[in-house]
Design goal:
By secondary structure, this protein is of the alpha+beta class. The chain has 28 helices and 10 strands. Helix 28 links the parallel strand 9 and strand 10. The protein is globular.
Length: 544
Amino acid sequence: MQPILENPFYYLDNFHQVLQWIAERYADLLDDEERAFIERFPALPQSSRALFVRMVMRKGRLFRASKLVYPEIGCPRAAARPLAEQGWVVTDPPVTLDELFALLQKPEIGQAFALTPPEKALRKEAQLALLQARHEGERPFSGWYGGDEAYRIVAQPLCDRLRLIFFGNYHQDWTEFVLSDLGVYRFEKVEFSPAARGFRSRRDIDEYLLLHACRERFQDGEHPLDVLADVPPPGTDNEWLRSRRDKLLFQLGQQLEKLRDWEGAFTVYRDCAYPGARARAIRVLEKNEQFGPAWERLQAAQAAPESEAERQHLLRMGPRLARRLGHPRAAGTKAAPPQRLDLALPLPATAWWVEGVVRDHLYQDEAPVFYVENALINSLFGLLCWDAIFAAIPGAFFHPFHHGPTDLHSADFHRRRAAQFAQCLAQLDDGSYAATIRRNLELKHGISSPFVFWGALDGELLELALHCIPAAHLKKSFERILQDVKANRTGFPDLIQFWPAEKRYNMIEVKGPGDRLQDNQLRWIDYCATHRMPVTVCYLQWAQ
């Protein structure tokens, strides 16, 4: 925290860093407004620049001078004047009564409108309703209230675009700098060329903005068909933009399913490449009683499943469709059931959770049990394959605040790094993997990773895992993660038990009363059984 305290203008320096970064890497993509802002902003007085950034980083677009009190800036009224001259801020802007109520406190409202004592006693919402009947339209802030000065920041959309260009998304914001400076987040330093950038053309930026607007309309409850009409066509070779479009289409299709618009949902799914869309298209055909077309698509999908998850869904739909069409029932193969453990334990008198109850019941000094779920295997994978995950692949990293590569969930994530991952996994064959994992645990500790759960990985757990889990089993687990990162990072059993004297382990999935195995858990359990990796499903009932 000390570096921030020593520099009261740390936020302004961070903002300048963004502008410089964009100017160096995206100059050819900027429009005239963005280019002019980047050129003119540094020439303003420091206090004006600082006030502008403070407003940009705060919520909303309307501010009162009396609420913009920052010791390093001084008088906000003086600092705002150059911003108004540039047209980035409007002084004394027209505001509605609703906006005024958001700015004023209740005593100020009573003073501004000369409310009677009974009116002053009303709740603020009731006062607003009362005054709306008396006042319509907008008027300058000073026309409503003369005890302060107000500003409207009109350059906020411009700054949002610049933030988008820098981060490549809207879910990261200016706090990334502060959290990094404070040490809350630490990021891997990836060497990437100045040419590495998320947007390759102005069309990419415009398409992102259109998709973002459509997503916000959908999240606000607009009918999916109305939103769908404005979704831009796929017209870019930018893969992560295509994936964003496909994800939005998939969500629109899901909502149309909920509305029982089978034809609309099918049309969306049919043209969507998002994982799972092909199986959903078959499902809505089935719901719409178009069994023939559904069967044809099922046969084509079964010939080349996109993932284990899709294969699982297709196997469930196949018998139903075959029965509908009068086809003979195909001989099915059932996976061998996992080892089962049934427990009947007394209901704890104090706070409890089922996994913790089973963990404590099974724990022995010579055979400790840990609650790990998705944390352990993912963390071991992330530590061993750190260099491959953070390899400077073109387009994977383009600013200093990446929590992981941008193509982490893309179909070719592994293929694009096949050589690097092969080198990492080869260490499981020659025995050097343990040293690499220990070294990265120390060197990379606390650095953000999409795989490593720092808070769940202590030295005892790590050493027991390296001692008791065979390298061959780790390799099989890591290979499965790489087959489908998004789907296969989850579904691991809840607990793991070690017998260090025997150098063996057992994974345990816990199910409480009425609980059942989820699809991703079933897939992991089946995979473990296929490769003879020990796993048990524990069914807990309360003795009472």
